[in-house]
């Protein structure tokens, strides 16, 4: 609802959302949802991988994943290091930025490979003209688009919100796709429900919108 156009849903498209606790995807075709699936791996899994691989605390792993994370190890010099003392009071060693990229690339490759296997199972591998849209904060890691394109064999793009007004300039980010989609869906379903009047729904949506804006930096 937040990131797909009517045309994309008609042609055939898969949305892949990598959240904190899981990665989920949904396939649309002929305007309706055809298949959905969820995997028990996500951003937290990637953070855990980094913490184990580099022998750091979870908090430090999360910070360096966000600040220095990449899925392009071949583009990083082997001697490029990250001084953990600059981001942590607990971890003071230096770690290889390239090695961290290798760790992250391996986990993302696994996620996209599992999506590809599921697409093959339902007979849609390479058969979705509108390609794939990636959403969730984790998909913003450099190299995510290229890796997904290589593994899935589909055109891939970031899933930015479409046809949404209001505070869109504040949340024009794949990380907010699920939250915005939920609001749009809730408003539409509420308007279609005989139990709730349109005025009440609009008021409720405005209240939620005000609350959402209060959370923004």
Report on this model:
- The protein is an alpha/beta fold and 217 residues long.
- The protein has 7 helices and 7 strands, in the order αβββααββαβαβαα.
- A 5-stranded mixed beta sheet has the order 3-2-1-6-7. A two-stranded antiparallel ribbon has the order 4-5.
- Strand 1 and strand 2 (23-29) form a beta hairpin.
**Could you estimate the helical fraction of the residues in percent?**
40-55%
What is the straight-line distance between the termini? Answer: 25 Å
Which range does the strand content fall in?
Answer: 15-25%
Cα gyration radius (Å):
19 Å
Quaternary structure state of the chains depicted? single chain
> What class, by secondary structure content?
alpha/beta
Major sheet strand order: 3-2-1-6-7
Mean pLDDT: 85
Q: Please outline the major beta sheet.
A: 5 strands, mixed
Which helices and strands appear, and what pairs or packs with what?
Blueprint: H1 6-11, E1 13-18, E2 23-29, E3 32-39, H2 43-54, H3 58-68, E4 81-83, E5 94-96, H4 97-121, E6 132-135, H5 144-152, E7 156-158, H6 177-192, H7 198-215
Parallel strand pairs: 1-6, 6-7
Antiparallel strand pairs: 1-2, 2-3, 4-5
